[in-house]
# Entry
Amino acid sequence: MLDTLCVALKGTPRVVVQVLKEKGALSAAQLVAETGHPEKSVKLALGELEKARLIRREGETYAVACRETMAPMSRVPFNTDLGRKVHATACAECWKKWQAQQLVLMNHFGLNPLDPQAQKFLFGAMESFFFGDGTPPMMIDTTLQGKISHLE
# Structure
């Protein structure tokens, strides 16, 4: 069973949700063309996503339902294009999940959120978390350790 949080999806379901977030309502055929995934995989993903109430179907088109089935974010998290994009596409539960991941990253790397280099790193991690390809987004990657310093 799929996790009810859209950011927890993997594989074809994740790609389908991301395309719907970016492009708006699309038909199954349009989703096959946009994702490049096989028709059978896309249709299976659509069925799973609809059952989990993460997408809604209106006639022949599908659209993201995260914000309609879950509580929306109360406000735009920050006044940037990324902040507005996250607010427009994520629910409050998805945002809480990101905040927990952000805290892990800040603690692991000893990041100061006021440091511009740390902010750039965290914004990149947020972009990956909400709009990435479904791979674990910016999990603790020790190859980056030592390359980000809040003392500069």
Notes: The helical segments are 11-23, 28-35, 39-51, 66-69, 81-89, 92-109, 116-131. The chain has a mean pLDDT of 78. The chain has seven helices and three strands.
